[in-house]
Amino acid sequence: MIIFLVVLFLIALIGTMYVFKQEEKKLKQYEHEDTVENELKRSHEYETQSLSSNVPRLLWIYSITIVLSLIVFLIYVM
């Protein structure tokens, strides 16, 4: 059971790092386009696209992790 929880934790950590790397890649791309117009465009893009794509991904990752952890805990207790 503990091995399963450790693997589950590692999967959640890898998923989180994947989302982080995507944002980091975008940031590096934006550093090359350093004008006021591009910064304004980037700000609007972040407000509309980034939050609507990254938050649901992270929500799914953590929801699945929590549910599976609770199931394993209940199996262990019974």
Per-chain topology:
Layout: H1 2-32, H2 36-77
Task: Give a quick summary of the entry.
94% of the residues lie in helices and 0% in strands.
Properties at a glance:
78 residues, mainly alpha, 2 helices, 94% helix
Which structural class best describes the helix and strand composition? mainly alpha
Order of helices and strands: HH
**How many strands?**
0
Q: What are the segments in which pLDDT stays under 50 over at least 5 consecutive residues?
A: none
Roughly how many Å apart are the termini? 13 Å
What's the helical proportion of residues?
over 70%
Radius of gyration: 18 Å
User: Overall pLDDT, averaged?
Assistant: 82
User: Beta fraction of the residues?
Assistant: under 5%
How many distinct domains? 1
**Largest sheet data:** none
- Number of helical stretches of at least 4 residues: 2
Inertia-based shape: elongated
How would you describe the overall organization of this protein?
This protein is an all-alpha fold and 78 residues long. It has one domain (2-77). It is built from 2 helices and no strands.
